[in-house]
Design goal:
This protein has 28 helices and twelve strands. With 732 residues, it is of the alpha/beta class. The chain has two domains: 10-424, Amino acid/polyamine transporter I, CATH 1.20.1740.10; 457-722, Rossmann fold (3-Layer(aba) Sandwich). Helix 1 packs across helix 15 (277-308), helix 3 crosses helix 10 and helix 6 (127-144) crosses helix 15.
Length: 732
Amino acid sequence: MESETRKFGTFLGVFTPSILTILGVIMYLRFGWVVANAGLVGALIIVVLCSSIALITALSASAVATNMRLGTGGEYYLISRSLGLTIGGAIGIPLFLCRTFSVTLYCYGLAEAIAMFWPAHWGAPPVPWLAAGFVLATTAIAGKSASLSLQLQLPLMVLVGLSLVALGGGVLGGPLRTPQWLGDADRLVAAGGFWTVLAVYFPAVTGFTAGIGMSGDLRDPQRSIPLGTLSAVGAGAAIYMLVPVLLAVSAVLNPELLGDINPQSPPVWTRVAWLGAVLIYPGMWAAILSSAFGSVLNGARVLQALARDGLAPRRLERTSRTGQPTVATWVGGAIALSAVALGNLNTVATVVTVFFLTLYMIINLVAAAERLVRDPSYRPTIRVPWWVSLVGVGGAMAVMFLINPVACVAALVLELVLWLYLRRRVYQASWGDVWTGAWASLVRLGLHQLTQRIRSPRSWRPHILLFADRLEERLALVRLASAFNQEHGLLTVCEVMTGRPEDRRQAAEQREQTMADLLGQEGILAFAEVDVVEKYETGLIDIAQANGVGTLRSNTIAFGWPGDLARTEAQLRVLRTLDRLGKATLIIHPGPHPPRHQRIDIWWRGKQRNGDLMLLLAHLLRLNPLWRGAEIVLRSIVMREDSREDMERSLSDLIHSVRIQARASVHVRDDDKPISRIVQDTSRHADLVFIGLRTPAEGEEAAYALSLHELVGELPTTVFVRNSGPFQGQLI
């Protein structure tokens, strides 16, 4: 037997299951019913509405997927790794139910299709019993081999394609009529109204998540998920715009025939397609079977991921010798089997619709939140504006409410209850008296939450303590520091007075208020601070250690350019201590001219040699509106021409892996040309230059300070960077 550790590509792993689930039971058994009740215009409006929500959600899911390494669990994995385990679990459980009820939906459809051949003298066909049998069969087969299930989809896709060709050829080759543009009002009311018709149709567009659900089984999920998913959504939307037109213009069909959903009546497609039932039935069965298999596979993997994260019983993550989540598969099959008792295809379709709309709402919310929060680690290769994702949130919620207000509220309440339960189960912290004051409680709660969360390079952002005397003359420096943290990290602007603290307290307080007023007038979101110290260098170190609250401590210490060698030597001595304390250091030299915000040069010596922080700061700076169009150039120097190609390839691979828009440029050093001259000649026309700092040994400060002063002579604004944080080399 083939090992289940096999990984799949874009076509077989994502596009094929997605498009086959889209082109499923609803297309064959309910599209005619939709056209009969809503008319051609109403049917096309339903297709556009549903496809738009699906497309926006696919874009949002693709954006989040390209920003992380995906594991097992599909959409649950995306949500839980973005919003946390409690919210992920509150969504993951309904997602599992979505997949499970989808199995019931497709098996009901297959049962109705088989019931057409039920002998009349045997009595009414036992559709629920047939559906139950198909649930058991698909669970057993899909649970045995994921590889076999996916490989079987290729011939199934051929059968579906032949059925579509047969429908198109039969309609266009036969008599045509003017379509019924608007549905009959009485018929529409009898069907439950426009939104009920939409609810029955909507599961047809939920198939695009089938490929996402296989995230843990893909070779390159970051590439395959967006490419395969968006291709499937586009192809499905195009087909679904065409099918209602074909059904509406055929003179062989009328609203009575289109609206007939008697299980013992053949699908209307067989009346007009080439070869009739010969091509339609195999295509329909193929689509339904592939959808059922995909739902079984995906549902089991969601439940397995929940178990791995401790949000479901651990025994559910067990796998068979072939790598299948056997226990989770059969638990899902049992739930799907019990859902057969819901009664009929339309009822199951409505339940599935409400669950999927809830899921889509949260996926879009994740993508919008990631964009709005501007987390430095959020660098997806597919960029979706936050407002587009919010449109998807609103659309999903509105459709869910219009379909069934009671089900909408019930679904949201269920997820809220799950979230509260999981939050209490996972986080046992008590926050004491929360009524002391609304803002004080909110800040206190936030600080405690941050304290309890595991800090990682993904959540790192610069909290900058900027030492800048004479603030009125250093506003450009403050704006640059503010742009580095995108107003999402903390920025403290500090002036230092020397003397006895008790003698200068009043002057310090007055100066601090003046600074705060100036920052407010300039629209800079920063804290003003004035500290009195007896000795300058030891005072700076003490301030740097004490600045901040809880986990929100300054992790990046910035200095303005001192102007003379003695002060630079003092800064370098302070840098050496800060380096031991694990704090990053920036020394910023202002350029002779205001920047044009067009080019940022980074002189690269490797991630571990300050390169990760320099590249991250350049990326954060370019998120600022003034620098949005700036080009980032990653520059490096090699000693020989034969080393250039390897270095260019290494830098290009790095740029691709960190998902930051930049280009690489490698320079070959001439034997008689100093490196400082190469830097000056190359970067004199840039607008901002990043250069790494080393920590000088004791006694070397004077020589190093002199070399820095000589280097900046012909350069624009230059930021010298020393990364000494706990995540050195890991920030990109």
